[in-house]
Inverse folding.
């Protein structure tokens, strides 16, 4: 039987997301650590995901990288557990498309994260401009 994965888009974020993954998986821990390193934010993405505040996590510039990292971490955990045998499709909703492309090794996790972070930053600027 063929399998497919669908990666989520903006709106699926929730404070605490990814925390149990990091607590239970060395792969997830390494992915979140790499994301914090790549982004280099004053407040690490992992801290925002695990502890909030919700107002920060729901900002477009933050939630898009957060969802990308969590989706990729789940993918890598499933891969490690051998649960992706027969995987023939990866797709995504909006920014989830970029997570699917990283899962398909179209580009590295790090390069995808940089693209998603820039995408989120530009969308946030666009939303702010439209509000004025």
């Amino acid at each position: 039987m063929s399998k497919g994965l669908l990666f989520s888009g903006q709106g699926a974020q929730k404070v605490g997301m990814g925390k149990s993954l990091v607590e239970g998986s060395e792969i997830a821990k390494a992915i979140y650590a790499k994301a914090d390193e790549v982004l280099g934010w004053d407040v690490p993405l992992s801290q925002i995901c695990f502890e909030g505040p919700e107002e920060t996590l729901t900002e477009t510039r933050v939630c898009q990288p957060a969802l990308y990292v969590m989706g990729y971490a789940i993918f890598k955990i499933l891969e490690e557990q051998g649960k992706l045998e027969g995987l023939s499709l990866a797709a995504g909703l909006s920014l989830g498309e970029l997570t699917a492309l990283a899962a398909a090794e179209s580009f590295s996790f790090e390069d995808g994260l940089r693209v998603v972070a820039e995408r989120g930053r530009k969308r946030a600027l666009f939303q702010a401009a439209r509000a004025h």
